[in-house]
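[job 0417] fold request received: RNA polymerase sigma factor
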Amino acid sequence: MVIDHDDADDVVQETFIKVWQGLQNFRSDSQLYTWIYRIATNESLNFLQKKRRQNHVPLENDDSLDLLNTLESSISQDYISGDEIQIKLQKALLQLPDKQRLVFNMKYYDDMKYEEIAEITGTSVGALKASYHLAVKKIEETLNSQEASF
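[job 0417] inference complete; emitting structure tokens
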């Protein structure tokens, strides 16, 4: 979600601090995995919002350009390995709204069931399916437009 390795390290550190501080309050209403994943998700989204505010980017404006620059920098520094299509996919993902990118990552990369994602995000399964479908369509459009430009 945050692209940069240093930023991801910061988010992971904050996540585990919150897990440690809140462990005594864990009620076992959900699995420990989903509880931790929800904390990590919230920390990632909070980090992105904080970064937008620090860079004076309006919340309704997408900061995909900043994340795209970070991705380009990571590629040039060999932090990201992979073939050209993987890079194109990452660029397409950065153009999605945070919520759609989150749902896509959980479903596609983490191979999570909609019910698990719903428990983590507090969103209905129907809304998640719609978000995932929209994300896939936007990614397809972006990839097709990238192909057309070559």
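[job 0417] notes: Confidence is low (pLDDT under 50) at residues 59-63. The domain at 5-148 is CATH 1.10.10.10 (Arc Repressor Mutant, subunit A).
[job 0417] exit 0
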